[in-house]
Amino acid sequence: EAGVTQFPSHSVIEKGQTVTLRCDPISGHDNLYWYRRVMGKEIKFLLHFVKESKQDESGMPNNRFLAERTGGTYSTLKVQPAELEDSGVYFCASSQGRINSPLHFGNGTRLTVT
Amino acid sequence: GDSVTQMEGPVTLSEEAFLTINCTYTATGYPSLFWYVQYPGEGLQLLLKATKADDKGSNKGFEATYRKETTSFHLEKGSVQVSDSAVYFCALIQNQAGTALIFGKGTTLSVSS
Fold first, then answer.
1. What residues of chain A lie within 8 A of the CB of B99, using their CB?
2. What pLDDT digit, counting tens, does each position of A58-76 carry?
3. Could you give the percent of chain B with pLDDT greater than 70?
4. Do A99 and B101 touch (CB under 8 A)?
5. Strand A65-68 versus strand A75-79 pairing type
6. CA trace torsion B91, B92, B97, B99 (10° rounding)
7. Which of A76, A94, B37, B93 is the 20 to 30 A CA-CA neighbour of A31?
8. Which chain B residue's Cα is nearest to A6?
9. Residue A100: band (very low, low, confident or very high) from pLDDT cuts 50, 70, 90
């Protein structure tokens, strides 16, 4: 079984530019989550998809962040325009639909905004 | 809201030393508790979990017991190895389908030979 894959693994962009992160969940997993860890701080929830629908986007920091999951498969997270404080590691995770289904995490995308 | 607090790192130990990483939580109801580990260059992996009070999760020599009376889930290992060097995250989730994990800040463990 292929795990959760994220692309790119690293991205360095300048303030004001746009970046799109991609997450491919495990096949058959309806739940897809985005998290972010800013250096030295906790991993914070950004949003949750169930299939193609946004179940909870309460963690999205502001309207510069746009997440999509067209067709209920892979997801993208776009940051436009990027700011310095957006730097961090963005994790994606997926799970099946049952209570207490374990979350499977990708390796993360390290975003650096200069 | 729900939250997780874990001890500040980094924790630096010699091989075969005893490890404790403290974790306490604040939550309504009866959440499930987890320890995740992130090895260098890798993603988060589930290390162990406990779903109700007094449950003990264990894996790879690590243990943690769900203590409702002290709202704690401390991670322990009797004899650490260099390969245990990683970042450890305590987390909780409410027992409702599809709710999100809430993480602590992570504790970096460095084990030297």
1. 56
2. 899 999 999 999 888 999 9
3. 97
4. no
5. antiparallel
6. -70
7. B37
8. B43
9. low
Best of A89, A99, A110 to disrupt the B interface (most B CBs within 10 Å) is A99
Q: For B59-80, write each residue's pLDDT tens digit.
A: 999 999 999 999 999 999 999 9
Contact A50 B106 (CB under 8 A): no
Cα–Cα nearest to B31, from A81, A99, A68, A66: A99
- Using the structure block, give the residue that is written with the tokens 């993360």: A108
Distance from CA of B77 to the nearest CA of A (A): 23
Residue type at B52 in one-letter notation:
K
CA distance B55 to B46: 16
Distances (CA, A) of A24 to A34, A42, A72, B46: 12, 23, 10, 19
Element of type H or E holding B59:
strand B56-59
CB atoms within 10 A of CB B73: 30
